[in-house]
Specification:
The chain is built from 1 helix and 13 strands; from the N terminus they run ββαβββββββββββ. It is mostly beta strands and 179 residues long. It starts with a strand and ends with a strand. The relative contact order is 0.18.
């Protein structure tokens, strides 16, 4: 005997000794009907569930209770000793507020930027007071503010900042114009 599972989960049993009896004919019809029904059934069309985009001054609250916001945008030029040096950039504050019931490992914080309508990649700036991700844990009910810098050439106004508080959270995308 041969057993086959069709996409609908129906098990069809057919004998190799097809003697033309009515039972064999019914089995054959069942296979054809099942295949036809599976082929005619339309597949669900996936909806575009792309990431939600927020303004530069918006706050994003995750289901976990962790909140991310950006503030204090100001233009500057990195020093000779910065990485990269002598580069126009925008400095801003990334604030994490832990409204969850668990400690947040802020060493997993990821911030990346792009600028311009075409989405040009932007380097993070490491200079005096711009040290990158923190190296602490954020306890429940506490907040942490981190100074961040991203390359933003003179004449460019459109900035996109992507923030991921940890590996388990989706990326929050902030965008807007910086004067």
């Amino acid at each position: 005997m041969i057993a086959a599972i069709i996409g609908t989960g129906v098990v069809v049993v057919n004998s190799r000794d097809d003697d033309g009896s009515p039972a064999a004919a019914e089995t054959s019809t069942l296979v054809e009907d099942t295949v036809t029904a599976a082929e005619e059934e339309p597949s669900p069309t996936p909806e575009d569930t792309g990431p939600e985009v927020f303004g530069l001054s918006d706050a994003v609250v995750y289901d976990s209770g962790v909140e991310v916001s950006l503030s204090k945008f100001e233009r500057a030029t990195s020093s000779d000793y910065a990485s990269p040096g002598n580069t126009p950039y925008v400095r801003f504050t990334v604030k994490l507020k832990n409204g969850s019931s668990a400690t947040v490992d802020t060493t997993l914080l990821s911030v990346s930027c792009s600028y311009g309508v075409e989405g040009q990649g932007s380097e993070s700036i490491f200079d005096d007071g711009l040290d990158g991700s923190p190296t602490t844990k954020l306890l429940t009910g506490r907040s942490l503010s981190v100074a961040w810098g991203c390359e933003l050439p003179k004449g460019e106004e459109v900035l996109q900042v992507e923030v991921t508080p940890d590996f388990e959270s989706e990326t929050a995308i902030f965008t807007g114009k910086v004067k």
